[in-house]
């Protein structure tokens, strides 16, 4: 049965091939919301928003913080072109925490000079990092 | 004939030059290996990106998106990737020539210089060089490419420039580097290396959000990846070019040293012969 449920997942970053294996499910955050992909999904291209990437393999789950890029979903294969992605052990928790506080403050202050979109993305990114570790 | 001392001095100076070129060759060989591996690693990302964008464009033939159409402005923005240091043979001048000897009008070109050599040369020729990113040449990071593409995309979106080009040296293999001028925006479909009729997937692709929105978000990433690919390849080409240049400089020095050694030995022989003749002549005169 295992064979029938699993599909190929490949994650590529500009600097390296990040991950390549057979998996049964992959979940991540897109511009349209959280999605989970099983085998035989309809072909789709989605844009990624910062969030936690969860890979479900036969042996267990793996998580990573996925920040930007897009994914091409085919029935037998999912390719994620990630501009920025990190495994939990590559994340600096302290830095993420301080980035979160900074972004939150900036959003709360909300004066005209702040770039709301940028602050929001920064917050999302920090949250993704923190959630990946926990 | 030059005196023995002159020849000896000349030989010494060439020998020390040879030592320098030899050392530079070794350094760039090591750097080349590293840069080459990096260039190979980025290939996967780039080709996946290329395929996706190709597939999108072949579907969205009639979308009138600004990224595909371009604006009225006659200005052209050229990202010129050169090196920070010289002694790399024709590496820098070949790329610069692409811009100066192409059919671009000097007044219409805005240069974004990546690399000191290119910046200096373009300024000397009287081009407008408002941006300088020379510090990223040595080891380009993806974030550098993002910063660069932000600037050019902004200029494009505001209509300040009508077209964006990337001038860099394509790294074909260790010995072949091709100076290349590539149009980044507007994305041109036909010009994309004739890879048009690759097998189209039988199942139509869905886009989420819709096509136009997706194009809006993916094209900047595409441009960034092209710029990053260009930077990484240029770094590899630079070291390849320098390695070649230094290799031939070393062997030229070798040749010259051989020639000078021969001359030196002749001169030495000549002076000994002359001395002997003088002594014999002197002895004969006395007796």
Structural commentary:
The complex is a heterodimer of chains A (134) and B (287). Chain A is an alpha+beta fold and 134 residues long. Chain A has 3 helices and 8 strands; from the N terminus they run H-E-E-E-E-E-E-E-E-H-H. Chain A has helices at residues 2-5, 93-109, 116-133, and strands spanning 7-12, 17-23, 25-30, 33-37, 44-48, 51-56, 61-73, 77-86. In chain A, strands 1, 2, 3, 4, 5, 6, 7 and 8 form an 8-stranded mixed β-sheet that branches. In chain A, a hairpin with a 4-residue loop joins strand 1 (7-12) and strand 2. In chain A, helix 2 packs antiparallel against helix 3. The longest helix of chain A has 18 residues, at 116-133. Chain A is elongated, with a radius of gyration of 16 Å. Chain A starts with a helix and ends with a helix. The relative contact order of chain A is 0.17. The model of chain A has no long low-confidence stretch (mean pLDDT 83). Chain B is of the alpha/beta class and 287 residues long. In chain B, 60% of the residues lie in helices and 13% in strands. Chain B contains 6 helices and 6 strands. Chain B has helices at residues 4-59, 66-69, 91-100, 116-125, 142-157, 211-286, and strands at 76-81, 109-114, 128-132, 163-171, 177-185, 206-208. In chain B, strands 3-2-1-4-5 form a 5-stranded mixed β-sheet, sandwiched between helices. The radius of gyration of chain B is 28 Å and the shape is elongated. The A-B interface holds A 12-17, 30-32, 42-47, 68-70, 72, 74-75, 79, 81, 83-84 and B 38, 41-42, 44-45, 48-49, 52, 56, 142, 145-146, 201, 203-209, 214, 217-218, 221, 224-225, 228. Strand 5 of chain A pairs parallel with strand 6 of chain B, so a sheet runs across the interface.
């Amino acid at each position: 049965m295992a064979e029938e449920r699993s599909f190929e997942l490949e994650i590529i970053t500009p600097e390296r091939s990040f991950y390549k294996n057979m998996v049964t499910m992959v979940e991540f955050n897109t511009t349209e919301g959280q999605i989970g992909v099983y085998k035989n999904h309809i072909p789709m291209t989605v844009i990624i928003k910062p969030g936690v990437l969860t890979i479900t393999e036969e042996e267990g789950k793996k998580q990573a913080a996925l920040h930007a890029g897009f994914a091409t979903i085919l029935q037998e294969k999912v390719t994620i072109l990630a501009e920025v992605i990190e495994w939990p052990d590559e994340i600096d928790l302290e830095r993420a925490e301080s980035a979160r506080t900074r972004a939150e403050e900036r959003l709360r202050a909300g004066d005209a000079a702040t770039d709301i979109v940028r602050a929001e993305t920064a917050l999302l990114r920090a949250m993704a990092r923190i959630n990946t570790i926990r | 004939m030059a005196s023995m001392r002159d020849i000896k001095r000349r030989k010494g100076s060439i020998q020390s030059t040879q030592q320098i070129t030899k050392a530079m060759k070794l350094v760039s060989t090591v750097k080349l290996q590293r840069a080459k591996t990096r260039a190979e690693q980025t290939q996967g990302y780039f080709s996946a990106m290329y395929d996706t964008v190709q597939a999108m464009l072949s579907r969205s033939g009639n979308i009138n998106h600004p990224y595909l159409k371009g604006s009225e402005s006659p200005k052209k923005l050229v990202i010129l990737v050169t090196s920070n240091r010289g002694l790399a043979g024709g590496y820098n001048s070949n790329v610069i020539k692409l811009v100066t000897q192409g059919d671009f009008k000097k007044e219409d070109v805005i240069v974004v210089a990546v690399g000191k050599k290119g910046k200096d040369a373009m300024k000397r020729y009287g081009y407008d060089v408002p941006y300088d990113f020379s510090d990223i040449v040595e080891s380009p990071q993806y974030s550098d490419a993002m910063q660069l593409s932000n600037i050019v995309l902004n200029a494009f979106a505001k209509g300040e420039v009508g077209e964006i080009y990337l001038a860099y040296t394509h790294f074909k293999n260790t010995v072949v580097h091709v100076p290349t001028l590539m149009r980044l925006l507007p994305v041109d479909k036909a010009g994309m290396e004739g890879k048009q009729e690759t097998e189209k997937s039988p199942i139509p692709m869905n886009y989420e959000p819709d096509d136009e929105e997706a194009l809006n978000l993916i094209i900047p990433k595409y441009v960034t990846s092209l710029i990053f690919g260009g930077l990484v390849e240029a770094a590899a080409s630079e070291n390849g070019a320098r390695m070649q240049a230094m290799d031939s400089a070393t062997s030229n020095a070798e040749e010259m040293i051989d020639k000078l050694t021969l001359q030196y030995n002749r001169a030495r022989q000549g002076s000994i012969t002359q001395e002997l003749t003088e002594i014999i002549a002197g002895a004969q005169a006395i007796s």
